[in-house]
Every structure is written in structure tokens, then in C-alpha cells.
Design goal:
It is built from eight helices and nine strands. It has a seven-stranded mixed β-sheet with strand order 1-3-2-4-5-8-9, sandwiched between helices. It has a two-stranded antiparallel sheet with strand order 6-7.
């Protein structure tokens, strides 16, 4: 594991303008904590090939070196997604946000903020894959002490069932970054009721990073009236790169097509 050897450009911001009848539908793909845009590129490519306008941002503190994540305040994460959305909202008829893991929390945070704005009506839907909304257990309570003792712990990345696949994330878990993550998740959870956009959620039955409580909290507390859950039976946490990726790609495509068709 690690960022070394990633395909050229896959750790950086990516954007591609659409074409044809889908050009005016924009989608932002948001990667997870310690991960990189590489985990979302195949999904984005799938939609761009269908003519959609896509963006895959590099979330601040990611895609460089793990020490950077110890120096990044959590407010920078949703701020980056908002900056990526702004030109799509201006140019497209509708926008979607797709998020993986902590990218799911990022998606929810931005969706909640958009709900209170005039431009929020352009957010047509959100898709989450193994989203994160809380850190369970008592260990996080000792987070400040752990961060003082060590700057990094063993990584939780590359939880992928399919052999030989790399998400090109950090091979160290930055402890100060985890403290920021916990603040971010608490702030986002308090906003879940504000999210009104239609939701499609994918959950891996066997996920070694996040317990199912994350999915259950989101489905129970989100304000969306339209919400569906799809179980993935042959993938671990980074399901966008795993055996069930085609299920994610095809079902999210149907989700978008239905919403666009209904408008």
C-alpha cells in the first residue's frame, strides 16, 4: 500500500467535461480518509464515457504524504467539495455528489449546507458507498493522548477483497488527522436532518474498516424521504475498486437516469 506507483495524475484533481444529452448533468466524486482520487477514478470514468460532466477532487491533506493530513483542519475538506461543485452548479442543470467512506460524510455535510441555499435545488441526488458518520468505541476518547505519543498508527486502507488492487492511499493513519475527522463526523451527524436529496447507499456486508452502525445511523437520521440501500456481498470497504464495482456503477447510473428522467 501507499501512494507510490499510482497512475499518472490519479492522485490529483481530475475533471472532464461531458458531451451530448448528459453534458448538463455534473457529478462530483469524493474519496475517503487517507485515500486518494484514485479510488474514485474508475467510477468517474464510467460516467464520463456516458457523457456526464465529472470532477474528482483531491481532498486537502491527501494524495501527498501522510504528515500533511496531521496539519489539515477538517473545514478544508467540505470547502474543497464546495469549490468543485460551484462551477457545476453554474453550468449544469443538475448535480450529484458521490462519496466513499469519509467522502460519504463529506457528501452529507455539503448536501446539508446546500439545502439551505437557493442553489440547493440543483442538487438532484447523492450516492454513498460504505459511508462514515461516527467513530464507535472508547479508543477515540484517548485520541488526544495518542496523538501526543505518536504522529501515526498502522493504516486502515486498502481493505479490498480483489487481489492486486491498490487505492493508493496512505500507509500510515495520522493521529491528529483522526482527531479532526472525529470533529468533522460529529458536526456532520448533527446536520443529517437537513439533507433532503434522494439517497442511494451501498453497504458491504463484510467491511473491515467501518461497522454497519454507520449505515444505520445515516438511514435513520437523514432527512431524505427517498432512500435506498443496496447490499454488496463480494467486496470489502473500498468497494468502488472491488468485485462489486460493476454493481455500484450500474445501479448509480440507473439512479441518476431515473432522477434526470423524472425532472
Amino acid at each position: 500500500m501507499g501512494t507510490e506507483g499510482a497512475p499518472a495524475g490519479w492522485l490529483e484533481d481530475y475533471q472532464a467535461e461531458g458531451s451530448g444529452r448528459n453534458k448538463k448533468t455534473g457529478i462530483v466524486f469524493v474519496h475517503g480518509f487517507t485515500g486518494s482520487p484514485a479510488s474514485m477514478r474508475p467510477w468517474a470514468h464510467h460516467f464520463h464515457e456516458l457523457g456526464y460532466t465529472v470532477r474528482v477532487p483531491q481532498i486537502p491533506g491527501h494524495g501527498t504524504n501522510w504528515q500533511d493530513l496531521n496539519r489539515t483542519p477538517w473545514h478544508e475538506w467540505p470547502a474543497k467539495v464546495e469549490r468543485e461543485l460551484a462551477p457545476l452548479i453554474a453550468l449544469c442543470d443538475r448535480v450529484f455528489i458521490f462519496g466513499l467512506s469519509m467522502g460519504g460524510a463529506n457528501t452529507l455535510h455539503v448536501a446539508a449546507k446546500l439545502a439551505g441555499k437557493a442553489t440547493g435545488e440543483k442538487l438532484a441526488g447523492i450516492v454513498l458507498v460504505n459511508p462514515m458518520i461516527h467513530i464507535p468505541g472508547i479508543r477515540i476518547k484517548f485520541g488526544p493522548l495518542i496523538a501526543k505519543i505518536t504522529k501515526g498508527l498502522p493504516s486502515v486502507g486498502d481493505d479490498i477483497k480483489k487481489p492486486g488492487v491498490n487505492e493508493y492511499g496512505y500507509d500510515v493513519l495520522p493521529t491528529k488527522g483522526v482527531l479532526e475527522l472525529n470533529k468533522f463526523l460529529k458536526a456532520t451527524r448533527s446536520m443529517l436532518g437537513q439533507v433532503k436529496a434522494p439517497l442511494q447507499l451501498f453497504h458491504s456486508v463484510e467491511d473491515h474498516v467501518l461497522p454497519v452502525s454507520n449505515t444505520e445511523i445515516i438511514l435513520n437520521e437523514i432527512g431524505s424521504s427517498e432512500k435506498t440501500r443496496i447490499e454488496l456481498t463480494n467486496s470489502y470497504h473500498v468497494a468502488t475498486l472491488d468485485y462489486d464495482a460493476p454493481i455500484i456503477f450500474s445501479n448509480s447510473q440507473l439512479f441518476v437516469e431515473k432522477i434526470v428522467g423524472d425532472r
